[in-house]
Amino acid sequence: MSENKKNEIDRRAFLQRLMTGVGAFSIFPGDIFLNNILMQFLQKGHAQAAGQGDGLGDMKLINLSIGGGISRWYWDSILTPNGSSDVFVPNPMVITRFRAQGDQVVGEYATTRVGSYNLPWTWAAQIPTADGGSVPMTSLAHNMLSLRGINTLIDSHGINRQRHVALFPGGTSITGLLADKAKTPIPVVHSGVDTSYYGSQKGTGLVSVGGGNPFSTALAPFLPTNNITGIKSTQVEDAIDLALAKMNAASVDKHKYLPSTYQARANAKTLMRRQFGNLQQSYSTLVNKYTNLMRRSSSKTDSALILAGVDDLSIPVSRTAPFNIGGNGNFYSASTDAQNFVGETAVVGGMANAMAVAEFMIKENLSSAFTFGLGGLVANNDAHEVGSHLALLNFSRYYRAFSAALYEFIQQMKAISTPHGNMFNQTAIAVTSEFNRNPRSSGTGADHGWRGANYTVFSGMVNQLTVLGNVRSDSSNNYLGTWGLSAPMSELGGREAILGNCLSTISAMVDVKTPMPNDRSFVRKQNGSIVPVMTSCQNFNANGTT
Q1: Helix 233-251, helix 262-297: angle, nearest 10
Q2: What's the CA gap between 102 and 158, in Å, rounded?
Q3: Residue 253 to residues 11, 25, 50, 350, 523: CA-CA distances in angstroms?
Q4: pTM of the model as a whole
């Protein structure tokens, strides 16, 4: 190996060692994050290491974990993918569109055609775009892989929320495996989820940021808000000087890889000051962008965003099952029209912050894997006692708001040039939840559907809408009907798909060894694109016949 090449490798290793927390130098809260931010800015203050050492070619994973066990049949629990040939047993809770019937409004299960599949009616909507216009929501579906009929094997909110990256606490997680390969200074970021299911084979650490604002802890020193005291310019200067001093002390014989001249250090300090000054503005701008997109999704005045059959009918409120909300006989009574149940300022809890964090950190080349916990819109996603009509209004708009934010994030990823063409081509965005929902035949709500979960991935590696997995109709009197209950798959020897199969699938996409080697992937990767190896997508009656 040439001396120059060896020096380049030594230099990258030294910088990475410093950037992963060795010799921490922060004097403020959020030490790990601040350390790495400072190191990234310093690295940009002098010559970059030669070669692909900057993480630009890293595979990216973003896990959006929706809390509360949200009902998925409005969006990606695709119940009649093949059309009228599919077995479908109606349930009063499983509705995607309203229709007028005399002086009443009733619900029905309706679909819209996308590619080779029939998707729930929500996909017939337009979603707002950052330029003030709108696009068909189906634009998002063209890069979607939907895995339906997944048996989680466990009925639990808390545990199932963590098991989409690792099935067991303390074991190896997909995010940990990705972190072990990452060249970015902050391999993994968690927000709003337990970190006990994160595991790395090499001991690679993660950054966990929490609170209503995911940066509230990590960026506390330099993100002034109503609840956080902003950093003073003198503190920034002190932090930079301390960082440089600590780095110099830690460098030992590697000092030649650090900026040594006064001018180089001055340039590094100037860059850091500018980055600190811009950080709050950049982050706030991103949060506002995603917030406004979600709010526009619930517009009652923009005709382009009105979804026929959902937003355009006045829905008289009554003290009957479709309008119950909460137990003990509570009903929606804030208005005579249920359309007012979701206001025009509603946003998906945590979504704007999550997308802002991911966009900022990927564009700044700071991180490669993320797990974000998301909340509700109006009603709690844990909709045990939310009747069918209010559930449709809430969750239809939830998924439209979610889709608008997701679409914008994907456009930003497509705009970043990488060795794989663009960043979306090397990114997998997994949309997960604790479970689907068992819809009650009374139309009064839905319970834990842990035997019929969904795992949906958006990626440039998915070249066309793909729906995989078998479902069957429930035979219980309480939950009679088709909602996504898992059914056996021939490719799995007659057993149902489980979360291990989903973990193996996402592992195949992001080029890491699956933590569940005994659970077969739904797909394989070929020339940068996914190819299904399990192609079953059938509906069965409760007795197992098609």
Answers
A1: 120
A2: 44
A3: 11, 19, 20, 45, 48
A4: 0.85
